[in-house]
Amino acid sequence: MRSVLKVSENVVVVGGGLAGLSSAARLAKKGFRVQLIEKAPKLGGRAITIPLKGFNFNFGAHAIYGRDHSVLRRYENELGLSVEWKDFSPKKAFYDLGSFTTPMPSTLERLFRTKILDAENKLRFGYEIIKTLTSLERGEEGVRIGDYLKKEPDQVRDLFLTLASSNFFSNEPEEIPSPLFFQYYKRLFSTHTPVSYIGGGWQSVVNRFEKMIKENGGEIINKEKIRKVEMDERRVSAVYGKESVYTADRFIFCIPPKALVSLFADTPYHHLFEEYNRYSPNQVVVYDVGLKERIPSPYTYIYHKGERIFITDISYYDTTCTPEGGQLMQAIAYMNEEEMEQDRGKEKIATIESVYDKHYPGWRDLLVAKRISKKATVQEIKCVEDQRLMPVQFYSLDHAYFAGDWCQGEGQLSELSFSSAYEVSRRILDDSNQGH
Ligand SMILES: Cc1cc2nc3c(=O)[nH]c(=O)nc-3n(C[C@H](O)[C@H](O)[C@H](O)COP(=O)(O)OP(=O)(O)OC[C@H]3O[C@@H](n4cnc5c(N)ncnc54)[C@H](O)[C@@H]3O)c2cc1C
């Protein structure tokens, strides 16, 4: 017989990734009784850290873009979540243009020095930044950025698309909707901290959210896969695990559309999720290496423009991720749909190795541990063409909320998870303050 875990005036959160953890922590801190249910033995979802031979490999997320405007920063201020920010050093970021490397134009001084643009186009690029910041440039609904930027000189268009490749982790930056592109860069160009890393890695953020949930009376249930929901007309009344049934006043689902389709399969609402399940995810090849010694290099970030591969020296920013004196680097190759379908991951791995050879000669002899993933999902729904992100609430479902990097919010990647989760907790707080 199933045991019924009845909790009063409370919230059940399904999924313990960044979206689930952050919404659960905020609501627990605000006095709700929270149960967080995660199917894996560890919390964190795609933000977990994998320890291997003394190295801590981040499975997924490594950087935060525009941290001063980020929701994680808002959690820091509002909830007292402590994050050890490690801001990226613009002086150590370069583009590899095949026959030479040149500074990435991440500051005005570096825009002046870079060879990716000639003098005339540097002025034009600067002017375009001002137009983006002042919303003079907003794009057009229905027009992809690749087409929208055709009015620009080739060098400027190319640089904008190169930037978008890095920030959207995309091999098809041309396909990004132009309004989304300008909305994103308006925010990013106005930041003082375009890229930051986290001391102690993402595991430290996961651990702090977990601690906050527990300290505020919340309960965390691991190794429990939610298999179905029970509906009372328009309202989710319970979710079912293997042995237990969880009831609550509100439910937040922080699990991807494919999991939602199966959860709601026996209800009249499964069609709500099918559209989002059809959209394609953004997937990349990841190749991280842990070395026993540091290889001296002028770069902490190098982007091979032709191959659309970047390498970040994670251990330069987060010294806790290696044994003493070691080095941990992350390489990512962006993939498009066709490459994924043709299973070109293996080929990409050889190319990544050649980029390591070029910029970090001798790495093979110093290798202690490596982690390769031929198909890592960076974002569950990629923001290209007419693919739409899922709403955080549906009109036909009462007291059910949704968050994750497949949901509507600000930014991209983990910022979508955090911002959709923040919006969901705001709605619950507002609603309960109004006595519903
Ligand atoms: C290689 C790589 C690099 C990345 N780099 C960056 C970066 O530099 N910057 C950045 O901002 N982001 C980056 N990301 C993206 C970032 O990791 C994700 O956006 C974020 O971690 C997603 O969190 P989430 O909570 O939305 O989803 P998830 O992490 O997918 O969480 C969903 C959780 O739900 C659980 N679950 C699923 N089904 C059930 C069920 N039925 N019952 C119970 N639990 C269930 C899963 O186990 C999982 O823990 C990267 C990702 C990858 C893979």
Automatic annotation (TrEMBL):
Would the keyword rRNA-binding turn up in this protein's UniProt record? no
Q: Which InterPro entries match?
A: Amino_oxidase, FAD/NAD-bd_sf, Flavin_amine_oxidase
> Which residues, if any, are the signal sequence?
none
Amine oxidase domain boundaries: 18-264
Q: Which GO terms describe its molecular function?
A: oxidoreductase activity
Keywords of the record: Oxidoreductase
Protein's recorded name: Phytoene dehydrogenase
Species this chain originates from = Paludifilum halophilum
